[in-house]
Design a protein that fits this description.
The protein has 285 residues and is of the alpha+beta class. The longest helix is centred in the N-terminal third of the chain and has 14 residues. The protein starts with a strand and ends with a helix. The structure holds pyridoxal-5'-phosphate. Pyridoxal-5'-phosphate binds next to helix 5 and strand 13.
Length: 285
């Protein structure tokens, strides 16, 4: 794999950073990942906007312009054979040569980018051919600024591991009030009686770009009602369908939660419709 580090492209094995980098010492940084198919990125500007907001919120000046990031995305896709890739961007506050928590002044951010292989998506989704995902649930024990796409991901990693070690695909999380937040690497939607609901955007969840495309495109299409509101775990457990959304799965249908079938235990018809709408508009964002 060819990666990008601080202005240069190089084979992954040659990319080296200092152990004094604050990304390594503190997870002090912001990242983003944009799906790209045959060199065509999905919603790259929305990913760049989110990264800009994240960097601003933790006081790191964005080291590249949006156009420079676009060039990095294009070059990495070309240098790594195009096809189905997640383009991963990572900015840390940099390396001051010592371990000290306070923000250093006059320090250069570390900029890293690479690609991640992701699954292809059929343009015509078919629920009979789609394999469903299995999830477990857990109380959300992460920090309270989950709207920031921080590279400090230990909370998410531990929650992901809860499902991974049980040979499941995701961990769906709830807050102390029993309200759905999100999943360890995804946002969550439920479907009941044909209507779709997902938690509102606040500090408890990441403003997922896939979530945005789903909500926006369903609203524009108009054939499936969609609400952003508080969703309780009781509703999740009684849902006809559960979906998780992220930039590699787009909309992933969940057919089992905590060992119980979701709805009739099959990938649902509303998933098929929503995924069809998603596929038809994803390059418009
Ligand atoms: C915690 C969390 N929520 C939601 C998402 C989905 O975001 P997006 O759709 O922008 O990939 C991710 C993706 O990495 C995530 O890590």
């Amino acid at each position: 794999m060819i990666v990008y580090l601080n202005g240069e492209y190089m084979p992954a094995e040659e990319a080296k950073i200092s152990p004094f980098d604050r990304g390594f010492l503190f997870g002090d940084g912001i990242y983003d990942a944009t799906p790209s198919y045959d060199g065509k990125a999905v919603a790259l500007q929305l990913h760049l906007d989110r990264m800009n907001r994240g960097l601003e919120s933790i006081g790191i000046e964005n080291p590249l312009t949006d156009q420079q990031w676009r060039d990095v995305a294009k070059n990495l896709s070309e240098k790594n054979g195009g096809q189905n890739l997640g383009i991963y961007f990572h900015v840390s506050r940099g390396n001051e040569g010592r371990r000290f928590q306070g923000f250093p002044t006059d320090i250069k951010a570390t900029v890293f980018a690479m690609v991640i292989n992701i699954d292809p998506h059929p343009e015509v989704p078919n629920r009979k051919l789609k394999s469903g995902l299995r999830a477990v649930s857990a109380e959300d024990l992460r920090w309270r600024r989950c709207n920031i796409k921080s590279t400090a991901l230990l909370g998410n990693v531990l929650h992901f591991q809860e499902s991974y070690s049980a040979q499941k695909d995701e961990t769906i999380m709830y807050n102390a009030n029993g309200e759905l937040t999100e999943a360890s690497i995804s946002n969550v939607f439920i479907v009941k009686n044909g209507a779709v609901a997902t938690p509102i955007l606040d500090n408890q969840i990441l403003p997922g770009i896939s979530r945005h495309i789903v909500v926006d495109s369903l609203r524009i299409d108009g054939s499936i009602p969609v609400e952003e509101r508080v969703v309780t775990m009781n509703e999740v457990r009684q849902a006809d369908e559960i979906w998780i959304t992220n930039s590699s799965k787009h909309i992933g249908p969940v057919i089992e939660l905590d060992g119980e079938a979701v709805g009739d235990g099959l990938v649902g018809p509303v998933w098929e419709k929503a995924m069809t709408i998603y596929e038809s508009v994803k390059y418009d964002y």
